[in-house]
Amino acid sequence: MKINYIEQILKSNQHFIERTGKDFFSEYQDNQNPFMTLVTCSDSRLQSEAFETCAINKIFIVRNIGNQIYSNEGSVDYGVLFLKTPVLLILGHSDCGAIKTFIKGYKNEPVSIKQELDHLIPVVDKKDKALLENITSNIQYQVEVAMEKYSELVHENQLLILGGFYDFKNEYNEGYGKLKILSINAEPED
Predict the structure, then answer these.
(1) First-to-last CA distance in the chain?
(2) In sequence order, what are the beta bridge partners of 147?
(3) DSSP structure string for the chain
(4) In this structure, are strands 178-184 and 160-167 parallel, antiparallel, or unpaired?
(5) Nearest alpha-carbon partner for 139 in 76, 87, 96
(6) What average pLDDT does this structure show over 120-124?
(7) What are phi and psi of 89, to 5 degrees?
C-alpha cells in the first residue's frame, strides 16, 4: 500500500516536470514574488487550482483548520509584511469541518486541535446560527482581525483584504465550485 502512494506522488511529480519544462523554474529559483497571501482551510476539497491554474510563485499559502489568522500569525505576517503581497484573501468553504467540530463540541479532541479551535470562541455561535452562517461569520471575523493588524497598509492602498467563500456545494446558488467574494476590506459585497 505504501508503495502505491509513493509511486502516485512520484508519477505526478514527473508529469509536472514534463508539462512545465526547465525554463519554468528559472522565474523563481532565487526569490519568490507572489501577488497574494492566501489564508485558507486545510480541507483537501479546497485547493488553489479552483481559482488559479498554477499557484507557484503567485500565491503564498497559509493553511490551517478554520482558515484562521491567529493559528499561523507569523506565516500570515511573512506573506503580507515581508513578501509584501498586495492581496490578502481569507478563504473559507462549504461544509467546514473545523466549524462543525467546534459547534458539536471538541473537548475530547487532542490538545493541538483544541488550541486551534479555541481561536473560534469569539465568533462561532453554537445555538442560534446554521453552519453556513457560522462559516461566513468566521470569514468576516478573520477579515476584521486582518483589518486591525494591517490597517495602515490598507489605508495606504498597499493591501487589499478579501473575505471569500469557496462554494463547492452551491449554497449560494451561483454554481458549484464558485469563489464568492463576501467582503472587500471588511465592506460586504453583494
Answers:
(1) 48
(2) none
(3) -HHHHHHHHHHHHHHHHHHH-THHHHTTSS----SEEEEEE--TT--GGGT-S--TTTEEEEEETT--SGGGHHHHHIIIIIS--SEEEEEEETT-HHHHHHHH--TTS-HHHHHHHGGGTTT--TTTS-HHHHHHHHHHHHHHHHHHHTHHHHHTTS-EEEEEEEETT-TTSS-TTEEEEEEETTEEP-
(4) antiparallel
(5) 96
(6) 92
(7) -110, 120
Q: How far apart are CA 50 and CA 56, in angstroms?
A: 14
**Sequence-ordered list of residues with C-beta below 8 angstroms from that of 163, at least 6 positions apart, any chain:** 90, 139, 140, 142, 143, 181, 182, 183, 184, 186
pLDDT in tens, 77-105: 999 999 999 999 999 999 999 999 999 99
Cα 141 from chain centroid?
14
Cell 473545523 found at: 98
Distances (CA, A) of 139 to 136, 163, 166: 5, 6, 11
